[in-house]
Amino acid sequence: MSTPHNEAKIGEIAKTVIMPGDPLRAKYIAENFLNDYKLVNSVRGMYAYTGTYKGKEITVMAHGMGMPSIGIYSYELYKVYGVENIIRIGSCGAYLPELKLFDIVLSEKVFSESNFALTLNNEDCHIVEADYTLNNIIKETANETNINIHIGNTVCTDCFDVYMTDVNQFLARVPEGFNPASAEMEAFALFYVAKMLNKKASCLMSVVDSKYIKDIATPEERQTGLNNMIKLALDSSLKM
Question: Catalytic pick from 22, 103, 131, 209?
Fold first, then answer.
């Protein structure tokens, strides 16, 4: 059995999936970190590879950009393929001055103005949390491997925040006391789908631009310069 968006057969996708946005990043991870990997999906160029990492079966699958895209892929992974854990590894924009390029952020809660939850599940929900157990595994693994991470809340937007006409007006609508560390475009949908289906999800992000600095990571740096985050996600998956 497959879906209109995923040609993998049942049994070809592992219980834990690492999900970058970029299909080429999924290919990079498979080629550089997995053993005996196999391409199990290429529909719409959204590559998925299943292989082993330090002896454990892992799938790496791209999710594309935006909540509708990750919403489709995560729902099918959980509902059709029996996936239990998804760790999104993506990029983000920093909203704190102390965050520098390629610093790693672990999301605890995500706020979105989107009606994703209302449309999908008839629930007027705009804040959703990462899975507590997965986040604790990631924190523990970061400590063990000496990888520094910033733990905080994030906002999930329907458009690229760099293109907003006035990002400060958006930030003024964020609930008081939420204090976002960063912005991205997918985590709310992932967390909400996981919550709805009683599954687990976390989100790790590397800073690629900032409200406080002018430097922006190049596409090449985004694809290949995020190895600490990739390794953290993979090493954490060994405990899931």
Answer: 209
Residue 92 confidence (pLDDT): 94
Q: How confident is the model at residue 211 (pLDDT cuts 50, 70, 90)?
A: confident
Q: For the chain, list the domains and their CATH numbers.
A: 16-237 (3.40.50.1580)
**How many CB atoms neighbour CB 213 within 10 A?**
13
Q: What is the pTM of this model?
A: 0.95
The answer, yes or no, to whether residue 1 has pLDDT greater than 70, is no
DSSP lists the bridge partners of residue 143 as none
Cα–Cα distance, 172 to 116 (Å, whole number): 21
Tokens of 187: 């985590």
Q: How far apart are CA 121 and CA 34, in angstroms?
A: 36
Is the dihedral angle over the CA atoms 79, 80, 81, 87 positive or is it negative? negative
What would the DSSP string read from start to end of the chain? Answer: --BTTB-PPTTSS-SEEEEES-HHHHHHHHHHH-EEEEEEE-GGG--EEEEEETTEEEEEE---SSHHHHHHHHHHHHHTT---EEEEEEEEEE-STT--TT-EEEEEEEE----HHHHHHS----EEE--HHHHHHHHHHHHHTT--EEEEEEEE-SS-GGG-S-HHHHHHHSPTT--EEEEESSHHHHHHHHHHTT-EEEEEEEEEEESS------HHHHHHS-HHHHHHHHHHHTT-
Q: Is 235 a catalytic residue?
A: no
- The token duo for 121 is 């599940």
